[in-house]
Amino acid sequence: GENVEQHPSTLSVQEGDSAVIKCTYSDSASNYFPWYKQELGKRPQLIIDIRSNVGEKKDQRIAVTLNKTAKHFSLHITETQPEDSAVYFCARVGGGSYIPTFGRGTSLIVHP
Amino acid sequence: DAGITQSPRHKVTETGTPVTLRCHQTENHRYMYWYRQDPGHGLRLIHYSYGVKDTDKGEVSDGYSVSRSKTEDFLLTLESATSSQTSVYFCAISETQGSTEAFFGQGTRLTVV
Questions:
Q1: pLDDT tens per residue across span A90-109
Q2: In principle, which of A45, A84, A90, B41 could form an S-S bond with A103, CB 3.0–4.6 Å?
């Protein structure tokens, strides 16, 4: 199948701490892994993505790592700030389907 | 933001009535999707389209139908609304087959009473 498992469902951290969200997928032919951030009452928006030929990608305070052998990928946010509070969704695309399949989301709460 | 708009933004309807939600894009993207978002379930695919008049079912398609008569418009119809269809509905578009960003509309909050 093309399921995506995402953990944890809720993550609470203090401002300045790091946050890590993990996702696993089942379709080994998946080749594109985007991460979306959804602020309260808003639409999901892409914050970073990684393709299967790359193991890690960074963009300022956020980074994504991919382990194709283990079929998991993770989002890392360093030096968290209150404005990072949102729901984060991982997704996978590729293989037998070009349609984005999403994880169930992680609600990140950053306490000032 | 990508040119994608949903209408209406909010709707309250009665059980048993038909409801149509509209997604309109100005990006000329080929692929369009309807998702529903519910607490604890994330974003679940209802239907998708890969071209004009080309549509297919997603994982939660029962009770829904879609149509795409023009590239820019993708309509989602609840044939006979039920309380279980109370949800936030998102339309999304993408340009090519996989490996590209999906852009989301603002969402439609539908309440079935």
A1: 999 887 667 889 999 999 99
A2: A90
Closest CB from A31, A42, A49 relative to B101: A49
Where is average pLDDT lowest: A36-50, A53-67, B91-105?
A: B91-105
Q: How far is B107 from chain A (nearest CA, A)?
A: 7
- Partner A contacted by B26 (CB < 8 A): no
From the list B58, B98, B101, the residue facing A46 with the nearest CB is: B101
pLDDT over 70 percentage in chain A: 96
DSSP for chain A reads: ---EEEE-SEEEEETT--EEEEEEES-TTEEEEEEEEE-TTS--EEEEEEETT-SEEEETTEEEEEETTTTEEEEEE-S--GGG-EEEEEEEEETTEEEEEE---EEEEEE-
**CA distances to A35, A45, A93, B2 from A50, in Å:** 9, 15, 11, 21
Structure tokens at B83: 């309380």
Q: Is A61 on the interface with B (CB under 8 A)?
A: no
Residue A31 to residue B48, Cβ atoms within 8 A: no
pLDDT in tens, B41-66: 899 999 999 999 999 999 999 999 99
